[in-house]
Amino acid sequence: MGERAIIGNASHSYRVEEGWGKRPDGQAYGYTHGICVDAEDNVYVHHTGKDPVLVFDPKGKLLASWGEEFEGGAHGFYLHQEPDGKQFLYFTDTKRSLLVKTTLDGEVLLEIGTPDRPDLYGDDRRYIPTDVCVGPNGDIYVADGYGQYYVHQYEASGQYIRSWGGRGSEPGKLIEPHGISVNPRGPEPELYVADRRNHRIQVFTMDGQHKRFMDHNLDLPCSFYFFRDEVYIPDLDSRITILDAEDRLITHLGEDQQAYKQKGWPNLPKDYFRPDKFSSPHGVCVDSQGNVYVAEWISDGRITKLVRQG
How far apart are CA 166 and CA 178, in angstroms? Predict the structure, then answer.
């Protein structure tokens, strides 16, 4: 199909750039979980294998690799630019039950472990953080997506503030809060939580009060990327969803409603995969030109670049 493969719709069309982000050493990725882009449009890939952080330029040239401490536990991945322009990476490590803040070249600046909440966590109640975001005031929010299903809020220093959530489907409750992000598009910021096993997004105030549900055009939402007045959502059930400023559907990219129904998914035979179709999108980001990068949850990884055409 080559570079002529085009996906999307009339307002959002993309050329599939095959082979982008291949490791020059020929090694495979581990599970590619997270992907983000910095102010210079360099792309950071977070995966569970050797050298868990790989940094590429926009053309796919490898610039750096590091982060051996995340091997086997790489999951949530977020790049935050502070008001002074400084940029930092935030990680959640499912293996070590840890949140980590680093510089763009990997210097560790902050680590936050299991919250000091013996009422929530104990020997048989593990904390397994899956995503992280930072609010406009610097507060850090962590989603315990594979543990006890809480959201935890901290000051920028790491000082604990509050928690909310817990297993359930009623307002304020969560089942697998896999992703978390700040919606900056309205009159005041909001927290979007990918309430994945409830098949919805749940929206909260910045202090954890339930505001509303979003349950249209979603199946298993993983996380979010806000770009201009749109939000891009990797849906594990085989598509990227783009919503407009009012959270109405613009398009699904690369949708394959058969992929996640296949025996052995997500680790399917290599001859199943097609350049213009996704199988298990887990992370997404968008660069300054509107190009989209997708990381898929597959044992030896898969990264796709979509070049914006219209």
Answer: 13
Which amino acid, residue 258?
A: Q
Q: For residue 78, list its beta bridge partners.
A: 90
**In this prediction, what percent of the chain has a pLDDT beyond 70?**
99
Domain count, the chain: 1
Does the pLDDT of residue 228 top 50, yes or no? yes
Are 53 and 63 in contact, with CB atoms under 8 Å apart? no
Q: What DSSP designation does 302 have?
A: E
For residue range 19-77, what is the model confidence (pLDDT) as tens digits? 899 888 888 899 999 999 999 999 999 999 999 999 999 999 999 999 999 999 999 99
pLDDT tens, position by position, 94-143: 999 999 999 999 999 999 999 999 999 998 999 999 999 999 999 999 99
Give Cα separations from 128 to 80, 94, 96, 97, 121 (angstroms). 22, 5, 8, 5, 10
Over pLDDT 90: what percentage of the chain?
94
Calculate the alpha carbon distances from 77 to 52, 166, 177, 284 in Å: 11, 23, 15, 10
88: containing domain: 2-308
| Those residues with Cβ within 8 angstroms of residue 233's Cβ, 6 or more apart along the chain or in another chain | 194, 201, 218, 221, 222, 223, 224, 225, 240, 241, 242, 243, 284
Q: Which long-range contacts (CB under 8 A, 24 or more apart) does 238-241 make?
A: 238/277, 238/278, 238/279, 238/280, 238/281, 239/278, 239/281, 240/278, 240/281, 240/284, 240/292, 240/294, 241/217
Q: CA of 100: how far to CAs of 2, 68, 136, 201, in Å?
A: 39, 13, 19, 25
pLDDT confidence of 18, banded at 50, 70, 90?
confident
Q: Give CA–CA dist 43/294, Å, rounded.
A: 11
Q: What is the CATH number of the domain that holds 275?
A: 2.120.10.30
Report the 10 Å Cβ neighbour count for 25. 9
Single-letter amino acid code for the residue at 177: P
Nearest Cα neighbor of 165 from 215, 114, 209 is: 209
